[in-house]
């Protein structure tokens, strides 16, 4: 088995697409409608992120996903230049060998960025 994609429900598909394209350099890979839902799949390298517009307002997200980065401090600086600040961290979790920071997406999904140390 291998990882295929992660998906989140969003209240505004266009706004969420814009956020992930501008903050994390994703690009639109595919879009379609399925059983009344509008779906956009974004891609960054081998990562796929599925955004599902939720017309029933279930978008109070408890989603949490983590992307590994090469240089967390540099990534934090780049995101700050785009007006995105961590909501937590950065933290060093030495026993795990992690250096990590957390952000919130447009639907309160938690985005963790992790550097192995």
TrEMBL record:
InterPro entries: Fosfomycin_Res_Enzymes, Glyas_Bleomycin-R_OHBP_Dase, VOC_core. It comes from the Bacteria. It comes from Pontibacillus yanchengensis Y32. This is VOC domain-containing protein. Residues 2-116 form the VOC domain. SUPFAM superfamilies: Glyoxalase/Bleomycin resistance protein/Dihydroxybiphenyl dioxygenase (SSF54593). It holds the Pfam family Glyoxalase_4.
